[in-house]
Amino acid sequence: MKTKAVVLVVGMGALFFMSTKTFAQSDNSPETRVMASQVDKGEEDKSRLKDAKELKRSTKAEAKMAKATAKEASRIEDDASDAAKQARQAARREIIAQKSRNNADEQARKAAEATEKSNNN
């Protein structure tokens, strides 16, 4: 009976130790779940930060392109304004030249009439 009791106690002890190791290795503890969620949050934060940096980079590139486009549009507008101003000035000069030609023609006609009168007298 003594051996039976010793074997029973040792067997129960062995089963107890084996079962505690099995339960101790499971990851169902709240601390493990909290740590896992923190790791997931950290990965999500890194992903969001990476996305934000990429968005900032692309926004800068788009702003640079928009600035270049605006500068080019301003240059074209200035060129068009200068061309319109030159066209107005050329039109004014042409009007003045036309008046001068008309006056010169009128004076030439009067001079011709005066010469003809003088030749007739």
Automatic annotation (TrEMBL):
Signal peptide per UniProt: 1-24
Keyword Signal assigned: yes
UniProt entry keywords in alphabetical sequence: Signal
Start and end residues of each stretch annotated as Disordered: 25-121
The keyword Signal is annotated on this UniProt entry: yes
Biased composition regions of type Basic and acidic residues, renumbered to the chain: 40-78, 91-121
The protein's name: Uncharacterized protein
Species this chain originates from: Adhaeribacter pallidiroseus
